[in-house]
Amino acid sequence: MDRSAEFRRWKAQCLSKADLSRKGSVDEDVVELVQLLNGREQFFTTSSCAGRIILLDRGINGSEVQKQNCCWLLVTHKPCVKDDVIVALKKANGDAILKFEPLVLHVQCRQLQDAQILAVRSTHGLEVPLTHKGKLMVTEEYINFLIKIANQKMEENKKRIERFYNCLQHALEKETISMTSYPKEKIKEKNNSSYTHKKKRNPEKACGKYITEENNKELENDDHDDPGISVTIFPEDY
């Protein structure tokens, strides 16, 4: 069985599994993005989150914040209000932390050249401690201020998802046109050359094959970082 067939079998196997996330389904704001990737033979998604505001309680032992060891006091994928946070904080008996987490998307890629068009980064997050050993350490006025910031980040995150979707769609369409413009022999020769002469390749040109300079500037806007995407290359053994 060739690697392409192996990848197709692996993809079908993974996408047929039950959704084990807390919600049990793909978030509404990333449904189109997930469908776009899973509709391409060279990609499939393994997990995703459109972005969320969460309130975690670490407990009284002061351990590092790890989701599997925390009490989830509040989780929302939409803008939240102060009253919900205040009510949730009353359940905290340790170190409660308010967090905003932007888009997270884990993508399996058939080969390296498929992963090149998905490389993005993000620092668009928020993490602030509110209680210590169950005692509220900030004022309600400050909590309200933090919630406004988190909600603003949620709205900005949604815009970034839309922008990323449009740029990715354009890049994939351009790639399809490029692939159909050459005979298979030339495409194969070109792909082999990209690995044989790897040291001579210009990284900027490699990315430029798929994302135009205009879209690349949009994805790397000075004022806005991009959604976080984790890309995994199809392994030899899985």
TrEMBL record:
EC number(s) given by UniProt: 2.1.1.282
InterPro entries cross-referenced by the UniProt entry: tRNA_yW-synthesising, tRNA_yW-synthesising-like_sf
UniProt keyword annotation of Cytoplasm present: no
Biological processes annotated in GO: methylation; tRNA processing
Keyword terms: Methyltransferase, S-adenosyl-L-methionine, Transferase, tRNA processing
Source organism, top-level taxon: Eukaryota
Domain tRNA wybutosine-synthesizing protein: 10-118
Compositionally biased tracts (Basic and acidic residues): 203-219
A Pfam family this chain is assigned to: TYW3
Broad enzyme group: transferase
GO function terms (MF aspect): methyltransferase activity
Catalytic reactions on record: 4-demethyl-7-[(3S)-3-amino-3-carboxypropyl]wyosine(37) in tRNA(Phe) + S-adenosyl-L-methionine = 7-[(3S)-3-amino-3-carboxypropyl]wyosine(37) in tRNA(Phe) + S-adenosyl-L-homocysteine + H(+)
Region (Disordered): 187-238
Listed pathway(s): tRNA modification; wybutosine-tRNA(Phe) biosynthesis
Keyword check for Transcription: no
Recorded family membership: Belongs to the TYW3 family.
Role of this protein: Probable S-adenosyl-L-methionine-dependent methyltransferase that acts as a component of the wybutosine biosynthesis pathway. Wybutosine is a hyper modified guanosine with a tricyclic base found at the 3'-position adjacent to the anticodon of eukaryotic phenylalanine tRNA.
Name of the protein in question: tRNA wybutosine-synthesizing protein 3 homolog
Species assigned in the record: Monodon monoceros
